[in-house]
User: What shape does this take?
Amino acid sequence: MFRNTTIVAAAAALGLSAGAVRSAEFQLLTGVDAGLAPGAVRTVFPSGAGVPGSFADGDRLAGSGATSSAAYVGTGSPLIAPNAYGSLSFMFRRGSVPVPQVGQAPVLAIDYLGGPLLDLDGDLNNGSRSSLGLNFDFGAGAVALTGFDATATNSGFQGFGPNIAATVNTLSGTFPDGSNSGAILNPALDTRSGALLAIAPNVHGISNLGYEIWQDSIDPASSTASTLGTFQYLGSLRGLVVARDGNGNFPTLAGMGLGGTIWPQVNSALVGANVAQSFGPPPFTPITAGPANDSFLAPNNGGLPLTAFGSDLGAYLDAVVVPLIDPLSQSFVYLESAGVGANNSFDPVFGDTTGYDLVLIAQSAPIPEPATGLLALIGLAAIVRTRRMA
Assistant: This one.
């Protein structure tokens, strides 16, 4: 009788894990190269008149090779040091600094996602984690984006204070109190739906998952402090969802033919497209390729191709990502996008351009959140039943 009860409890646990894969909150992973940028410093020249800039994005994967310091460069002291938690998820934003009498200077901002969630209130001690919401319908081959709420850090900007070095990042339509109107400004891009394709047992490809993510600093003195959506990141995510097998193991991804990453691709397809702005005039803005003297479509933009791990993304995930995953987490996702964006502030450096890119790596919430209580009740029922039958 005891063995039969154990089998029932095990089946319940498996059912819960399967449910978590189908509809889950995914927590952004951290724990690699804290305090460092994902690449060594490289020189990027403007396409026309100007001076070169320094980018430290590398292949845009944490733990894959050469790094450099992610030191804070602004004034004062930031709430959280840049990449304090060792992020595996990033938001990249290409910009260009106008240099009087000279031309343009290329610049790339990197936001390091993950760690304690600010919840729009600056509280680092509420236990919440930066997360991504996804629903999977494996039978229909469909995936939906249901949520995004993440804290990020960055290196700030020379001459600016520390509050711009921490950002909140949410789905479009989010209000300062954390609620969401559900309104979608750019339905052609922000579809929040995509396709699933089986690649191998427990491995599915994700494609064409449309999104619009808003990014805002925690600076109460900014020109847009009372409204979210200062920066709009738009595009289409692609990647993988990988689940454990019946023995609790993730499949080996190396040699599966996954290839490399999307880089060095830059989104040229949406240059010229009109994007509805989150606030402020005009209501629509065209996406450009950058200033006349600094085309973001020129060579050496968009990140470097993956060359480590035999240029195999699967080998990277096996070696770097899987060891970080909580033993009670049943699945993980890798997502990437070469996107576009809009800036609704008075910032002359970052515009309404291509070059707003994403990398997201996250694990499904471990089973004990919230399954522990239910499994404990099952266990208690099993003990009571076993004693009665003894």
